[in-house]
Amino acid sequence: MGIEEGVPLRYRRPVKNYFIVALLFVALSACVAPRKVVPVPTAAMAEKSGQDLAILQKGYGVYMAQCSRCHEPLMPSDISTADWHIVTPGMAWNAGISEAEEAAVLKYILAAK
Q1: How far is CA 74 from CA 1, 7, 63, 68, 85, in A?
Q2: What is the pLDDT of residues 16-64, one digit of tens each?
Q3: Which is nearest to 111 in space by CA: 36, 59, 61?
Q4: Distance between CA atoms of 113 and 106, rounded to whole angstroms?
Q5: Chain centroid to CA 74: how far?
Q6: What is the pTM of this model?
Q7: DSSP H helix total and E strand total for the chain
C-alpha cells in the first residue's frame, strides 16, 4: 500500500506542485529581469569622444557580432579603460578580426564608457 493510497487526489503531492510553481516563477522572472543594453553609437557619443560616427558604428557592429559568439558582450562601463586596452587585443586575436576592426572596437568601447 503506497503512502498516497486512500488520500483524495487534491491532497496528493502538494510539495511537488509548489516546487513546479516556484520553478515556473523563477523561470518567468528571469525572462523579465532588466538587462543592461550595450549602448548604440549616436552622434552625441561621437561628438563627445571626438571619434567619427561611422567608425563607432563599425566598432559596435563588430563588438556585437564577434563578442557574442563566445560570451555575452560586456558593458563598456563595466571594465576600466586600462583593462580594455589589455583585453581588446587578446579578444581580437581570438576572434580573428582585422587590426582595423580591432581599432574600431576599441574606439567604440572607449566612446561608450
Answers
A1: 57, 53, 10, 9, 14
A2: 555 555 555 555 555 555 567 899 999 999 999 999 999 999 999 999 9
A3: 59
A4: 11
A5: 6
A6: 0.68
A7: 5, 0
